[in-house]
Specification:
Blueprint (H helix, E strand, L loop, with lengths): L5 E5 L20 E2 L2 E2 H11 L4 E6 L4 H6 L4 H9 L3 H10 L6 E5 L6 H7 L1 H4 L4 E4 L3 E4 L4 H9 L7 E7 L9 E9 L2 E9 L10 E9 L2 H6 L12 H8 L5 E5 L3 E4 L3 H13 L5 H15 L3
Parallel strand pairs: 1-4, 1-6, 4-5, 8-12
Antiparallel strand pairs: 2-3, 6-11, 7-13, 8-11, 9-10, 10-12
Bound molecules: uridine 5'-triphosphate (UTP).
Length: about 300
Amino acid sequence: MKLVRKAVFPVAGLGTRFLPATKAMPKEMLPVVDRPLIQHVVDEAREAGIEHFIFVTGRNKAVIEDHFDRQVELETTLLERQKQKALDLLRHDLPEPGTTSFTRQQEPLGLGHAVWCARELIGHEPFALLLPDVLVQHERGCLAQMIDAAREVDQRSNIVAVEEVPRERVDQYGVVGVGAAKGKVFSITSMVEKPTQGRAPSNLILTGRYILQPEILDLLARQDRGTGGEIQLTDAMIALARTQPFYGLKFDGRSFDCGSKIGFLAANVSYALARPDIAPGFRSEIKKILAELNGG
Ligand code: UTP
């Protein structure tokens, strides 16, 4: 029996930091090299053995559903033009029929609310939660690393991916307190959302990958509003931590916050440089740009 079979992808946010690009197009469809953000994250979940992909969408997000469907006309044209490689790629990326579900968050009331909107699809089993605007680049995906680590702790545990940031930036994130180590993970002693520097229990922040027990859904159902008037996931996790263990995993790899412009641009550079088919040409373009900027 698998530890985690289902993954939730909240994609109902407004993406205001990317306006006007996100006026008519979802932020999650912005490409990092030639794959939309949401595709990168679904790839990560597939690699980790996830069998069911649950998307919490909203208005203007129908294109995400289309992205995970067949495009028969396009496939026919590619076949006629003998573009077999492109066709194979499209087929490879497509989830198996019946393994995707879509539900709507009618108002973007926060991440916690988005997760709660998926409650009927999640049912009463542990689930993974992946924020599509965070990419983690490593040969073994972040969620796969978390599932490996989950085998070392009690099955009724919650696991979150964490990473270090400079102290002066902790006030932008959810921050965890560090307890005893257990294999590759450590026990979490506290969680604080966007603390002032003095109140931060460490400089380890929540990175956007979670394995959660279904009891979180009952806590989210109370619809308590937290920071910014939104229904915060961290608040529900703090409440759940009173009755269930929470562990943190310092994952291997580099994360990119693609919800910010700099993080998104950095991800494009890093992913392009990791692609053998485009890295040589791209590297020489970057060198030219930098040389011109430096006056040489
Ligand atoms: P963000 O807060 O980074 O996304 O949420 P946002 O609100 O779309 O972006 P900005 O701040 O306005 O630029 C992280 C993820 O959670 C989803 C978003 O779509 C994003 O993938 N989300 C956020 C929801 O699904 N619903 C919400 O109410 C809020």
